[in-house]
């Protein structure tokens, strides 16, 4: 083996020794509440397909029709000749769904964050981030070159401190370099956090951003389709849609397809078409993905979407009351603890990486699939089981999960 492979093998060995080495699992079934892995059928509590749309006949038919009409590939980037009718239909549907002036779709949520943040900010600007924002926002922040200020998770005092610092920085910046734009301040948070399943205090954050003249970007990846009367997300439920300059989300979770989106003002969208490099320098998403996403959004808007939203919350209630109350134990590793906020994501904190992996394996012995989430997805020593519920689970599925969680708790 040459040095290159030797070095990589050594690095993998270190990951393995730390309980952090990861491997792909081949799944031999469509997305759903039952998945086939290694010849076994498992009850699946790991999907972000919260409303069960990924395998829905309406979305599949939309994708098939798009393939037949527009082909398998899109042939070019959006600004050349790849801006196909299904992309435009998707963007009109998204703007209508979110009650926004305009929308732009990207190939993934990851590309959405990278393209949008780097288009809006440069090295003279400041980005203020919640400590737990998704990796794509952290990567975008770094790539933009902006000054990065991080506040403790959901800590409004910390946020205000960073905003005060940013305002002072802005003042000094505009005095030093009169020819430049004064520095911009962009606050970025998720609405429902992907690994903790808790909610950001959006009303208070919006008030602070007004007070300090900052811009606000909210990533609704785990809230789109699930919250609010029109299922637009937590911003709708919190009544702050009008105060968020940049509304971001993914089409790969509750929407059931793939891609990402920004909703906002017409100038924002026109600007991103000109400046978001992950949008400009990349082949347009395949027509099937855009058409499936359009069908997913329309289903979310329909009475069936409302029904699924209701069923999902019933499952969440049932699961949470089944897991709680938390047994009191002072030993860190023995705690199975659900976080107190209502979301489809129910993290069960374990702490130690190897114990989290063992707990996941114990559930798998019972034909239940709940992944162990470890560093670098969460901080070291904050490993957890991450349960996600979907509208297509049955009440019996949820009972089975709760019983299995109770039994692994007692067999430590
Ligand atoms: C999943 C996720 C993304 C990325 O979206 P993809 O479409 O999967 O690339 C962005 N932000 C958050 C909070 C996410 O959970």
Shape: globular
Stretches where pLDDT is under 50 for at least 5 consecutive residues are 326-340
- Number of DSSP-assigned strands: 13
Distance between the termini: 42 Å
Tell me the fraction of residues in β-strands, as a range.
15-25%
Sheet with the most strands: spatial strand order? 3-9-8-7-6-4-5
Query: Mind telling me the C-alpha Rg?
Result: 22 Å
What is the tally of helical segments? 15
Listing every helix as H and every strand as E from the N terminus to the C terminus, the arrangement reads HEEHHHEHEHEHEHEHEEHHHHEHEEEH
Class derived from helix and strand content = alpha/beta
Average pLDDT confidence is 93
Measured as a percent range, the helix fraction is: 40-55%
């Amino acid at each position: 083996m040459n040095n290159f492979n030797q070095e990589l093998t050594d690095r993998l060995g270190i990951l393995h020794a730390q309980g952090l080495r990861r491997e792909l699992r081949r799944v031999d079934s469509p997305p759903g509440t039952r998945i086939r892995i290694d010849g076994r059928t498992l009850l699946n509590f790991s999907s972000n397909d919260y409303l069960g749309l990924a395998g829905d006949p309406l979305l599949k038919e939309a994708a098939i029709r798009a393939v037949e009409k527009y082909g398998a590939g899109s042939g070019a980037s959006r600004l050349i000749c790849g801006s196909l009718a299904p992309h435009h239909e998707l963007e009109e549907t998204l703007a209508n769904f979110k009650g926004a002036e305009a929308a732009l779709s990207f190939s993934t949520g990851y590309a959405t964050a990278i393209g949008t943040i780097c288009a809006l900010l440069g090295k003279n600007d400041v980005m203020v981030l919640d400590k737990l924002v998704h990796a794509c926002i952290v990567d975008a922040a770094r790539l933009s070159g902006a000054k990065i200020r991080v506040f403790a998770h959901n800590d409004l005092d910390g946020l205000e401190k960073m905003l005060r610092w940013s305002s002072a920085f802005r003042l000094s910046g505009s005095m030093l370099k009169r020819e430049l734009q004064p520095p911009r301040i962009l606050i970025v948070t998720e609405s429902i956090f992907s690994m903790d399943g808790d909610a950001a205090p959006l009303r208070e954050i919006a008030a602070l951003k007004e007070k300090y003249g900052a811009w606000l970007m909210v990533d609704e990846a785990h809230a789109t389709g699930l919250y609010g009367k029109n299922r637009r997300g937590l911003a709708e439920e919190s009544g702050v849609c009008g105060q968020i300059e940049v509304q971001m989300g993914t089409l790969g979770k509750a929407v059931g397809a793939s891609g990402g989106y920004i909703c906002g003002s017409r100038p924002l969208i026109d600007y991103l078409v000109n400046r978001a490099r992950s949008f400009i320098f990349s082949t347009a998403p395949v027509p099937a993905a855009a058409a499936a996403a359009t069908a997913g959004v329309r289903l979310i808007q329909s009475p069936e979407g409302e029904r699924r939203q209701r069923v999902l919350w019933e499952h969440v209630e049932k699961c949470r009351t089944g897991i709680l109350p938390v047994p009191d134990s002072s030993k860190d590793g023995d705690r199975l603890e659900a976080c107190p906020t209502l979301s489809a994501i129910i993290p069960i904190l374990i702490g130690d990486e190897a114990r989290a992996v063992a707990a996941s394996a114990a559930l798998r012995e019972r034909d239940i699939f709940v992944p162990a989430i470890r560093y670098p997805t969460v901080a070291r020593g904050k490993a957890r089981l991450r349960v996600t519920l979907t509208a297509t689970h049955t009440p019996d599925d949820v009972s089975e999960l709760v019983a299995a969680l109770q039994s692994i708790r007692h067999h430590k």
